[in-house]
């Protein structure tokens, strides 16, 4: 369920682009977003329509990420992408540290593997990812970027399949996401 709810950002971005980026919703981007969302649904197969507090928090996260994509589109340029990425990474650290301490305490801080994992995640999964997004997202639209980002569950499923032997991803779901991505980026 969480994977599907996170995938709703694909539809949120085109809807939010109008008021925040002063763009009209392009039919092809909305269609691409709906195809990608259907693909995420098929891929993640949520087994319940029961909404709990975790689902509400996940929707809030999807909305926040959609807004982040909108603001990257609005404010990022080639000459400021490093600075914008730095401030985003700093904000993530400042905002997440209290939640991490509250949720986990200070467990494992004496273990070098905890510090190694934290440094790896901070450098590559946060700072580098923010930089690459700030540097290259302005070359497309926020709507198309959201559809491209919907490939995350496809790559996660493939990674889990090849590294820990989970079931192969549903290729119908993956195909719908790829079709959405192609539709979003297709030029006349």
Defining traits:
188 residues, mainly alpha, 9 helices, globular
How many individual domains? Answer: 1
Percentage beta strand: under 5%
What's the overall geometry?
globular
Number of DSSP helical runs: 9
Q: Element order, helices and strands?
A: HHHHHHHHH
Q: What is the helical fraction, as a range of percent?
A: over 70%
* Number of distinct beta strands: 0
Helix/strand-derived class? mainly alpha
Q: Can you give me a brief rundown of this structure?
A:
With 188 residues, this protein is mainly α.
What does this molecule look like?
- The chain has 188 residues and is mainly α.
- It has one domain.
- 77% of the residues lie in helices and 0% in strands.
- The protein contains 9 helices and no strands.
- It has helices spanning 2-7, 9-21, 27-44, 53-75, 81-104, 112-136, 142-149, 152-164, 171-185.
